[in-house]
Design goal:
- 2 copies of one chain form a homodimer.
- Chain A is an alpha+beta fold.
- Chain A has one domain: Arc Repressor Mutant, subunit A (Orthogonal Bundle), CATH 1.10.10.10.
- In chain A, 42% of the residues lie in helices and 13% in strands.
- Chain A contains 5 helices and 4 strands; from the N terminus they run βαβααββαα.
- Chain A has a 3-stranded antiparallel β-sheet with strand order 2-4-3.
- In chain A, strand 3 and strand 4 form a beta hairpin.
- The radius of gyration of chain A is 20 Å and the shape is elongated.
- The C terminus of chain A is likely disordered.
- Chains A and B meet through strand 1 and helix 5 of A and strand 1 and helix 4 of B.
- Strand 1 of chain A pairs antiparallel with strand 1 of chain B, so a sheet runs across the interface.
- Chain A binds a DNA duplex through helix 3.
- Chains A, B: This is Helix-turn-helix domain-containing protein.
- Chains A, B: InterPro entries: HTH_HxlR, WH-like_DNA-bd_sf, WH_DNA-bd_sf.
Chain lengths: 133, 133
DNA sequence: AGAGGTGGTTACCGATCGGATACTCACTAC
DNA sequence: GTAGTGAGTATCCGATCGGTAACCACCTCT
């Protein structure tokens, strides 16, 4: 299993633009993708998710744990070590996520074009009554 | 094309529990499903979405329009009539939404069980140090 | 002229979300 | 006994979200 690259998510569009969201909060889908290939330590997750503060990452992990997508295991020896891994339920999310990613790959540009277009021509819908019509 | 029933969404779980979210805001996926079978008027949408206030519904529709999922068409005669319909891009969302709904149908109970279980046994993770051990 | 319908808008409000910054506790290695 | 590491917490803050309540412009029908 390869280690997670720091630029794993650098190419992604900001998630506020994301038209499809899974499992709770903003970062949860990215966390799930990090765990796709096997268990990871907290500090490992922080590498690709370097823009997420520890508080927020913990929140996200706790929420995923509560929902049964992720299992948290703590080892105390020889040094403190906490690993997170997908449960079967978590794995089952990968399929719909894959479909959604495929959708995004196919249609992302259309969406962005629509946004730019609507920014360029704001619909001036209810200002008609200012005229003398 | 059948008219939309008022109880169309009554059986749905509150959307805060929804592990999969599409296209922007809270109500957007429901709006898309309302438009699945063809164009609908604003007042038609308000029937199944009777728990959504006009402000919020309008916001949702505007956002879907900006993103190119929905087309808004206004007719002034003989009475004011505004219809909303899915664009091809909007239609293309139905497929990933279907997959996500299938996922939910198959795994919803697991998720709810996990939640109840974690509510019943809150993980008392960092209170160990209160003891004498 | 007034009632009613259609498709909204505006102002306000509380809750939640995500982020910034700083701090902590347990443990190990030196 | 001090420094470092791993895995977080604590506190504060601003922005956004969703909701309530009230209002509005336009049209048609009677």
């Amino acid at each position: 299993m390869e280690s997670l690259r720091p630029d794993m998510f650098d190419e992604l569009c900001p998630s506020t633009l994301n038209p499809i969201r899974f499992a709770g909060d903003k970062w949860a889908p990215l966390v799930i993708r990090c765990l796709e290939d096997g268990p990871r330590r907290y500090s490992e997750l922080r590498v690709p998710l370097h823009r997420v503060t520890p508080k927020v990452l913990t929140q996200s992990l706790r929420s995923l744990e509560r929902d049964g997508f992720v299992r948290r295991t703590e080892y105390a020896v020889p040094v403190r070590r906490v690993v997170y891994e997908l449960t079967p339920l978590g794995h089952s999310m990968l399929e719909p996520m894959r479909v959604a990613c495929e959708w995004a790959a196919d249609h992302w540009d259309e969406l962005l074009d629509a946004r730019e277009l609507s920014l360029a021509n704001p619909t001036d819908r209810y200002t008609r009554h200012h005229g003398n019509g």
